[in-house]
Amino acid sequence: MKFLAPLLAAFVFLAIARGAEPEPVPMIPGETVLVVGGVSLFVWEKWKAAPHDGWWMNFVRAARIRVNQIQSVNPTADLTLLVYRPAYQTRGAADGRDYLSDIRSIQEAFKVRIVFFDRASEMVEYLNNGKNRNATPIVDFEYFGHSNKACLMFDYSNNVDSASKVWLHEKDLAQIRRGIFAKGAFVKSWGCHSGELFTKRFAAATGVKMIGAKGKTQYMDEELPILSSAGGYWIR
Fold first, then answer.
1. Dihedrals φ, ψ of 112, to 5°?
2. Burial of 75 per CB tally in 10 Å (0-12, 13-18, 19+)
3. pLDDT tens readout for residues 174-224
4. Is the dihedral of CA 20, 60, 26, 188 positive or negative?
5. Taking the CA of residue 146 as centre, how many other CA atoms within 13 Å lie in the half-sphere pointing to its CB?
6. Ramachandran region of residue 141, left (φ > 0), alpha (ψ -120 to 50) or beta?
7. Alpha carbon 69 to chain centroid distance?
8. How far is CA 49 from its chain centroid?
């Protein structure tokens, strides 16, 4: 917990379930950006021993829980959800439902900004230039979605079964412009295995430390994702 000491003046802390460390809620001026990756196609997953994303809202729900946490402490927080559009289009077509409209409804219900992206480069462009980062730096950046130790996988098992064609690889992190994050920004990947390599590369590229999981994570219905590997832990 030593790394939290310099932030005490700038953050209010929330306790979350299962005895996990409290997640900080930014109280300094700036933008919170929550990136929501895409879900798998259930037709490919339902027969597997450990299927992914039985519920299409797997990652959307997690982001909404985080939005609720932030707004309960800071009602005027500047919140943006960056959502990977193609995965919800294909999952919606497979399930016979317009999931994009469901996601858009969050914008009014929760008073947040919804920005869809189709390519990793569009996500990076928003981080760099979505707002004037001199006036509105990013104070909180979090990822909800599939990942491995080397990359954030926006379309895992959606375009190709058990694989990804759209990702932000650790070798792409140099595209994120230094200086867009506020001093002491909170940055976390809630995906699996990010703490095994990706977080180190993120810090080297951006100068900002990211929290990630050693091992797997499990997305929940009523709380933020939890560690699910024996001996797993969060690392920064």
1. -125, 165
2. exposed
3. 999 999 999 999 999 999 999 999 999 999 999 999 999 999 999 999 999
4. positive
5. 20
6. beta
7. 15
8. 26
